[in-house]
Amino acid sequence: MTYNRYAAVYDGSGQIRFAILTAIYLEEVLQRHPVSGRRVLDIACGTGTLLAILAERGWEVSGLDASAAMLAQAAAKLAAVPTRVELWQGDMRDLAGLLPANAFDLVTCTYDSLNYLIGSNDLAACLRGVARVLTAGGLFFADMNTRHFLAYDWGECTFSEQPAYIQVERTFFDPSSDVSTMWLTGFIGNDHEGYERFDELHIERAYPSELVAAFIEAAGLQIEGCYDGFTFQPPTTTTQRLCWVARKPLCQSC
Q1: Of 203, 158, 152, 202, which Cα lies nearest the Cα of 177?
Q2: For 180, which of 43, 168, 205, 242 is 20 to 30 Å away at the CA?
Q3: 160 phi and psi, to 5 degrees?
Q4: Average pLDDT over the chain, rounded to whole?
Q5: pLDDT at 254 exceeding the cut of 60
Q6: Same domain, 54 and 160
Q7: 126-130 — which CB contacts under 8 Å span 24+ positions?
Q8: 48 and 78 in one domain?
Q9: What's the domain range around 222?
C-alpha cells in the first residue's frame, strides 16, 4: 500500500523540507489572500508537518489522509500542539461525504497530492468537496505538478541515502496519457543488522491548467491566483509547479 512502510521514514528521507517551505509560502499567500477565521483542513496531510506549523501559529487544525500509517505519524507529531486537532482517515475524493459542510476557513492540499487523482471525475469530485466544507469567504490553497515537470524535470532514476535509510526512485512518463509512474524502493536498516526492503508505486497525472481552472470554477469557487510555484509570478511554459488560490463566494449568486 502506498505510504505504508514509507511513513516511518518519510520525514527523515527529506520530504519534511517541502512542508516547511510550503508553510513559509502559505503565510505570504495569506497576506495577499486573507481569511477571517482560524480553522484549517489539510487534505492529504501526510505526517502532519504543515498542520503542526499552523497549529503553532494559532490555527485550529484538522487533517485528512488515506494512509493510517501517515496519520499515526501525524498524531504523534501533533500530540503536544496548543490548539484543537482532528484527524480523519479517508479518501479525498469522498470529502463531501466525510466532513461537515461550511466547517473550515482554509483548506489546503499540497505536495502535488491532487496529481494523484488520475481521473478527471475524481479531481472534480475532490474540488466539489472542498467547496462544500469551506465556509463562505473561505480560501482554498493547493499546488500541482505541471506536465513540463513530470515529462522533463523529474529524473528517470534517482538515488538517495540517509542514516539507516536508502531510497531508489525509477520514473516513467507516458506522453499519451500525461501520466507519470514512479517505482519507489526503500531499504530500512544498517550494514550490521541488514536491511528491510519495501516497494511502493506512485502515479501522478498532469492536468492542463485550463482544465483545473474549469473544475475549480465548476465546483463553485472563484480563482484569485494561479502562480508559478512558491512565487507570485505568472506561470511560464517551464513552470514546474502551479499554486492555486481560490475562494468560496460569500453568497451563491456572487
Answers
A1: 203
A2: 43
A3: -140, 150
A4: 95
A5: no
A6: no
A7: 126/43, 126/92, 126/93, 126/95, 127/215, 127/216, 127/218, 127/219, 127/221, 128/96, 128/219, 128/220, 129/92, 129/93, 129/94, 129/95, 129/96, 129/97, 129/98, 129/99, 130/43, 130/95, 130/219, 130/221
A8: yes
A9: 7-146+207-247
Is residue 1, in this structure, part of any structural domain at all?
no
Q: Are residues 172 and 218 in the same domain?
A: no
Which residues neighbour 253 within 8 Å (Cβ) at sequence distance 6 or greater?
none
CATH number assigned to the domain comprising residue 158: 2.20.25.110
Does 37 score more than 70 pLDDT? yes
- Is 254 a member of any domain? no
The CA distance from 3 to 220, in Å, is: 31
The model carries a pTM of 0.96
Model confidence band, residue 12 (pLDDT cutoffs 50, 70, 90) = confident
Helix (H) or strand (E) holding 122: helix 120-133
User: How many other C-beta atoms lie within 10 A of the C-beta of residue 177?
Assistant: 11
List pLDDT tens digits, range 68-114: 999 999 999 999 898 889 999 999 999 999 999 999 999 999 999 99
Task: Give how many domains the chain has, as a whole number.
Answer: 2
Q: When comparing pLDDT for 85 and 2, which is higher?
A: 85
Residues 216 and 92 in one domain: yes
Quick one: 107 and 192 in the same domain? Answer: no
Q: What is the pLDDT of residues 49-65, one digit of tens each?
A: 999 999 999 999 999 99
d(CA 74, CA 58): 17
Residue 118 lies in a domain: yes
Q: Are residues 132 and 198 in the same domain?
A: no
